[in-house]
């Protein structure tokens, strides 16, 4: 197996494991942000699997369209939707769920019906600018760029708020059994992982195309997964903690009231 195929396989398995972890959390608490994260990570897995197929078996129209749709357009907006649901609450979350879902359906139709502008070489990852017209490329730029800013901004704001809050509560743990410092670190790792995923284009210009994208997928999703795991508690406390509101969410509700 070539290096890029092995990296794509690793990204697929890691994304799938991450999606199952967030799905398990959703089953425990049925919280809307965890449903959005599960959908996003399933799309990460689908995009990585398309990269795996293209790297191992050769690129074609539908393997590239699948990779472009799930890996470059849809996954990051749904990850950002989880951030909106978590930080802005269900009222804003429902509105943005409808907006992102409608735009996602539109982009799906756009990619499926898109005409290819040039041939696809089976042994080289195609470039969007060489294969698609402006519509799919604009969708990828807006979907990935704007959504990544939402995720990074939300994670940094949450980390800053938790660290500031630590001055008033000290090192005490919240209802989840986690300290504000640990939760802040988790948010910083999520921001860092998103930056790594967004840097796939830079890696693409430094190493060969398929290796660059695969490296960014593996590294980015691994860093975000570590941040997610830092929010876990041990043993039987997990289920109880997931059902209880986070202290910073409770504080937000108190201020809103």
UniProtKB/TrEMBL annotation:
Residues that span the membrane, as ranges: 6-23, 35-55, 67-87, 99-118, 138-163, 184-207, 213-231
Keywords, sorted A to Z: Membrane, Transmembrane, Transmembrane helix
Name of the molecule in the record: Unannotated protein
The organism's taxonomic lineage, starting at the top: unclassified sequences, metagenomes, ecological metagenomes
């Amino acid at each position: 197996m070539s290096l890029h195929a092995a990296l794509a396989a690793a990204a697929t398995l890691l994304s799938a494991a991450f999606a199952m972890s967030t799905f398990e959390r959703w089953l425990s608490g049925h919280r809307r942000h965890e449903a959005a994260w599960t959908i996003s990570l399933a799309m990460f897995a689908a995009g990585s699997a398309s990269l795996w197929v293209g790297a191992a078996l050769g690129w074609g129209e539908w393997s590239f369209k699948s990779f472009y749709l799930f890996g470059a357009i849809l996954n990051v907006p749904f990850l950002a939707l989880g951030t909106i649901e978590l930080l802005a609450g269900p009222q804003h979350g429902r509105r943005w769920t409808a907006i992102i879902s409608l735009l996602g359906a539109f982009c799906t139709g756009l990619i499926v019906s898109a005409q290819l502008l040039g041939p696809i070489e089976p042994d080289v990852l195609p470039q969007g600018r060489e294969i698609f017209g402006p519509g799919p490329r604009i969708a990828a730029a807006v979907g990935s760029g704007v959504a990544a800013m939402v995720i990074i901004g939300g994670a940094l704001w949450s980390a800053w708020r938790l660290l500031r809050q630590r001055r008033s509560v000290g090192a005490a743990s919240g209802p989840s059994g986690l300290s504000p410092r640990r939760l802040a670190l988790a948010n910083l790792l999520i921001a860092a992982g998103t930056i790594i995923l967004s840097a796939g284009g830079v890696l693409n210009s430094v190493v060969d195309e398929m290796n660059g994208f695969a490296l960014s997928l593996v590294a980015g999703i691994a860093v975000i997964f570590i941040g997610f795991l830092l929010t876990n508690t041990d043993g039987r406390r997990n289920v109880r903690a997931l059902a209880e509101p986070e202290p910073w969410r409770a504080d937000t509700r108190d201020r809103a009231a």
